[in-house]
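Dock adenosine monophosphate; give full complex structure.
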Amino acid sequence: MEILSVNAGSSSLKFTLIELPFEKVVVSGTFEKIGIDGSFYTIKYNGEKIKKEVELKNHTDAVKILMNELIDMKILDSYDDLDGVGHRVLHGGDTYFDSIIITPEVEDKIEELFPLGPLHNPANLAGIRSFKEILPNTPQVAVFDTAFHQTMDAEEYLYAVPMEWYEKFSVRKYGFHGTSHKYIAQKMREILGEDKKIISCHLGNGASLCAIKDGKCVDTSMGFTPLAGFIMGTRSGDIDPSIIPYVMEKTNKTAAEIVTDLNKKSGMLALSGVSSDMRDIEEAYLNKDPRSVRAMNMYIKHIANYLSMYNTLLEGAEYIVFTAGVGENSDIVRKLLIDKFKFMGVKLDEEKNSTRGITGEISTEDSTIKVVVLPTNEELMIAKDTYDLINKE
Ligand code: AMP
């Protein structure tokens, strides 16, 4: 079956066409600057990347061009050849525990959740509606970034705030990166043949940890929004909330502007003064730039705090899994972090850890917790959920 995995942003649309059950990526690409001057798209096929500039007034224009390209490139014979479309949707609130075939009711619910995901859900829905317009008979599936975390207990997801904030305004922890953590949980089960107690460390520009038991999320570090948790590329992670009204008064900024500062101008970017890109920070760290050394030490300490918390919550994790841009590529971050747990017998095989592009186990034989590098694949997870739901119908 040919399944298209889609991630629609406010001015972009990323796609990957995957053949299932073979898990073969056929073609992928991105439409960018949708609704803005200078729009273009890129397509990667058979090892080649093409780029074309074209006017894209809206997401529907992008979908039309995409479908026609797939036919022109003889990847599909007709629109009917596409068996399903899986859409990444940021927020499923506390309604969706799993992916779901999109019906008009699901569309309404995604719209109802706009206040919880104001930047993403509207764009995700625009993508869904564009595909529905061009491919009215093709099944479409919503895969929510929050769904995997819906197994959290109230003891994990409630905040200690007035209960009516939760009851009336849905203020609670939702967690994000669920599709990635779910992929890690499933892949680890596939590799090991059974569910183990895992701490999945999705360390990218955005980053979160997830404590997984019996293949289910027990707790995760992001919260009501992706701003919560530990220090990220440009996000602050957890801070004292009283800082917000204090800085609003000092700067005359609005709450929304402060939240933008916390999302875009904070984290490793603010601490290092160098960059939000871990490659730049690592270089400065190795050159002993004092701010980058301090930033890196803080980054590691904050993640180690969450790791310790989840180790306790799981009553002894069996696996620590590193994934996403930093987790998959930074042997320095992995070493600094795992060295914090040497005192309890968690040990890295330094040679394996420093092998470029390593996947698999990087801990020593006698390490008390096994440490693994496993590349995440959210596009495949979206396609697999879509394939499974279509075949269940
Ligand atoms: P993601 O959000 O998963 O795309 O990850 C993006 C982050 O991964 C950026 O901060 C990159 O600097 C980081 N990254 C990518 N490649 C490397 C690398 N080779 N070493 C260290 N960090 C990397």
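Observed: Residues 204-206, 233, 277-279, 282, 324-326, 329-330 surround adenosine monophosphate (CB under 6 Å).
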